[in-house]
Amino acid sequence: KAGKGVQAVRDFSQRAEQFLRQAEQQYQPPFETQYDVTCCGKVFPMVTGYEKRDPRYLFGIKSNISRESLCGELCFFDCCEQLTEALFAQYLELFRKIQDERVPSGDPSHDYTLISFVLCTDVVDPRIQRKIKRSEDYRQYKKGEYGWSALRICVADLSKHTYYCNSMGKAIVECLTRNSEPQREKKRFGLF
To answer: What is the 3-state secondary structure (H, E, C) of 68-96?
Structure first.
């Protein structure tokens, strides 16, 4: 029996490594990827992100009177063999702490920052599937004058080949699965 447990852990770690390699391929420039990043006391096997400053546009015309726009995304990846209710609560607390620390909420040129988390696991406790979907954290800074941030969560159940996400995390699922399934053409005004 001990051999089966060791084999299951080895199988999960191999699938998790493969998942991270595939995810890395999806996040191309402007995203930059780093490995074994420590943030808020937690080591993440992979973090990818971008930050850009652009001039502001008003009706498609570059504005000379308004400030630059700062926007970006940070996507943290982690793996755990089994995602329980207690572990998800710890992750959620950590996610919000990272959002507090990494969003430049005091920068007047800040437009938005997306803080994304992708957890790959072998087992998702059925009781937390709804909690994942309902885990929202949208913040405006100085009533929107200093931009906003949103927490995006995506949990990849490797054993069932299923994704669970909150409403903002749907974009992560689309990004992670875009090579495995063809992208659907978007309808324009319902005519095409």
So the answer is: CEEEEEEEEEEEEEEECHHHHHHHHHHHH
Sequence-ordered list of residues with C-beta below 8 angstroms from that of 65, at least 6 positions apart, any chain: none
Burial of 24-54, coded b for 16+ CB within 10 Å and e otherwise, reads: eebbeeeeebeeebeeeeeebebbbbeeeee
Q: What is the pLDDT of residues 16-46, one digit of tens each?
A: 999 999 999 998 888 999 999 999 999 999 9
Give pTM, 2 decimals. Answer: 0.82
Q: Tell me the C-alpha distance between 75 and 145, whole Å.
A: 24
| pLDDT number for residue 55 | 67
Alpha-carbon dihedral 53, 54, 58, 59, rounded to 10 degrees: -130
